[in-house]
Write a structure and sequence with these properties.
Largest sheet of chain A: 8 strands, mixed
Distance between the termini of chain A: 35 Å
Helix content of chain A: 25-40%
CATH topology of the largest domain in chain A: Carbamate kinase
Binding site for substrate (chains A, B): 47, 74
Structural class of chain A: alpha/beta
Strand order of the largest sheet of chain A: 3-6-2-1-9-11-12-10
Enzyme class (chains A, B): transferase
CATH architecture of the largest domain in chain A: 3-Layer(aba) Sandwich
CATH class of the largest domain in chain A: Alpha Beta
Radius of gyration of chain A: 24 Å
Binding site for ATP (chains A, B): 7-10, 173-174, 179, 184, 209-210
Oligomer: homodimer
Shape of chain A: globular
Organism (chains A, B): Acidiphilium cryptum (strain JF-5)
CATH superfamily of the largest domain in chain A: Acetylglutamate kinase-like
EC number (chains A, B): 2.7.2.4
């Protein structure tokens, strides 16, 4: 017997039939003798409608009123799911964020969970009752409803799992697990039985958006064992756990890619102390995040700086830098939106040399030029011409022995 | 400068354009220098959709979960209206039932308001802020959302008006006031500038459903001055107030009719003590309300009892009485659904004789047979054949001098 938090996203509760399916799935787990709490999103489309109404009334809507409106989506689902569960004989009771309460900070529209008192939920679960909890919402210090930002229900589920000391947090989605890479690009991609928190975070940050990043960070911090699995099949999913729990650890867990970045090169900047600050300071002040950075020294006392940022920020970044042109003293600003970032991720890299070398050789063998390189303890990323994305991902997937047998 | 509670029903906030109209109307009252609080219903249709979902999942849905689901309708409206008000420069803030809190008893789905703490609302209004309050909902002793039953937003508005000691509670509806009778039957019906609480109650109970009965009872108890007016025009409406406030009191305020009742006659019951109890006891136990009652004594030691009840209860009443036939000892059960109840209402009756006489003479002059008569201090009601309804209402409207000049 285990204590399990089951989380269902918007497509899993999109209409009454799907809500009934979710109820049946919860009942199966209850009937196996487990203690269960459920966290749900709003019915697919509901949140979009509520957001659209707020935006139509005022593009500069008050975030506190936005939260009041948008949080109703989950409140509808928890009530309906509780009724659906009761109808098939499962003792269930709905809980809004303010009822538990799920205390958050006061950043309306993108609040962070501060604390959840799990005592009453645990008491109910021990009695055999299934708490059905609204995801994505909490209550702020101002006694008003807060929402966690889009996709926040994953974070709610992990936070609830930590609060009730659950053995596992099962996140039901429209994919059936985490793969070694995008199966649309590599048909031989394998579903991973398990992946370490750190790997999941690196994969999420480079585009494999199975779980919201914040939920993985929280799971890692609170040591919540997470399982990603499909709400439409019964296959086991992927466990996201501490790396110590993964018995047969591969050196490389997966290959990720992102086409969301653009490359900026500031040419012929005077090569003197403080020049990096003069370039990146104004960008940071404008709230523009910079990702990969390289600097080449040239012979004539100038240097070229290359970096990447989110493609959508490119026009704004260009404005900011052009304004500071004289101050920074660069000769030319070159930008290239047609780039892709390819990353090899795996906690095994910490103890195995040669991972980066394999990557560079594989890409060179296919004539793919590497424009920028950046590395972390468990990741090697390269920036390449976007048109080589699929070729690169497939080559690396094979090179690291990830192809399905 | 006055303190005013403005209440808007579902048709007044049916879409974003109408919500903007409501905001503009609130702004006009604020700009006149008044302190304003707003109470709103859900967008027209929203509540029906939410109720339908609950019913489709389970006709025997848990009322606590029903309340959780259905109360979201008003929560959406208050957030949107607060945004619409802010957009045109009115300081506004939404309030759900649990935030104020509006404390109710624990009868989920049909709760009654126990107490509202108006202190914080008054403080905000004095600061110039407009509280936008969800009607129809509160919070029960179990810390769960309760709803007041359909139409409960009128009651919410009156209760809020009492709690903030408002000078007036303006109820915006799709009619522009209370008329001397139904203008669809009598084109010469007049809009009343004012009507006494007791008169409004009697009119509501016989089918003139401008305000929810419970809201009028509460207004009378708390001495809240209510105004019924149209949300689509700027004409003044009808004040519902203490009779002492009405200067030019007519003897008869209005003529009401109801086709919702059916007549039941229990023939040849033994005429002995306790026989009324033997008939009406079982009906009361079955939750069936009986309205008008007459008893005729016949010569042979038996009596006929005639009474009316809501037409929808007729089949159930017949079942209940047939079951008790031997016990009661009646010979025959006759029912007639084709009846109408016509009522003449006015607090002036207390001090003026002859009101009933005028009624009987007018009906007799048109050959309309009276089947049952019942009277209260401020009302005379008669049951007649339904096909004479319009004729009777028009005749009485003229007889009491209510026709527009």
């Amino acid at each position: 017997m285990a204590r399990i938090v089951m989380k269902f996203g918007g497509t899993s509760v999109a209409d009454l039939d799907r809500i009934r399916n979710v109820a049946a799935r919860v009942k199966r787990v209850v009937d196996e003798g487990h203690e269960v709490a459920v966290v749900t999103s709003a019915m697919a489309g509901a949140t979009n409608q509520l957001v659209a109404w707020c935006q139509e009334l005022s593009p500069l809507y008050d975030a506190r009123e936005y939260d009041t409106v948008v949080a109703t989506g989950e409140q509808v689902t928890i009530g309906l799911l509780a009724v659906a569960l009761q109808t098939i004989g499962v003792d269930a009771r709905s809980w809004t964020g303010w009822q538990i309460p799920i205390r958050t900070d006061g950043q309306h529209g993108k609040a962070r969970i501060d604390a959840i008192d799990g005592a009453e939920l645990i008491r109910r679960m021990q009695m055999g009752q299934v708490p059905v909890i609204a995801g994505f919402q909490g209550i702020g210090p101002d006694n008003r409803v807060t929402t966690l930002g889009r996709g926040g229900s994953d974070t709610s589920a992990v936070a609830v799992a930590a609060a009730v000391k659950a053995d596992r947090c099962d996140i039901y989605t429209d994919v059936d697990g985490v793969y070694t890479t995008d199966p649309r690009i590599v048909p031989k991609a394998r579903k991973l039985p398990a992946i370490a928190y750190e790997e999941m975070l690196e994969l999420a940050s480079v585009g494999a958006k199975v779980l919201q990043t914040r939920s993985v960070e929280l799971a890692m911090k609170e040591r919540v064992r997470v399982q990603v699995l499909s709400s439409f099949t019964d296959a086991p999913g992927t466990l996201v756990v501490d790396e110590d729990e993964i018995v047969e650890q591969e050196i490389v867990a997966g290959i990720a890619y992102s086409r969301d970045e653009a490359k900026v090169t500031v040419r012929r900047v005077p090569d003197r102390p403080g020049v990096a600050a003069s370039v990146f300071g104004p960008l940071a002040e404008a709230g523009i995040n910079v990702d990969m950075i390289v600097q080449n020294v040239s012979a004539d006392g100038t240097t070229d700086m290359t970096f990447t940022l989110n493609k959508t920020e490119l026009p704004r970044a260009r404005l900011v830098l052009d304004e500071k042109r004289d101050e920074i003293g660069f000769a030319e600003l070159a930008t290239d939106p047609d780039v892709a970032k390819i990353s090899v991720v795996g906690v095994g890299m910490r103890s195995h040399a040669g991972v980066a070398g394999t990557m560079f050789r594989s890409l060179a063998a296919r004539g793919i030029n590497i424009q920028v390189i950046s590395t972390s303890e468990i990741k090697v990323s390269v920036l390449i011409d976007a048109e080589y994305t699929e070729l690169a991902v497939r080559a690396l997937h094979t090179a690291y022995g990830l192809d399905v047998a």
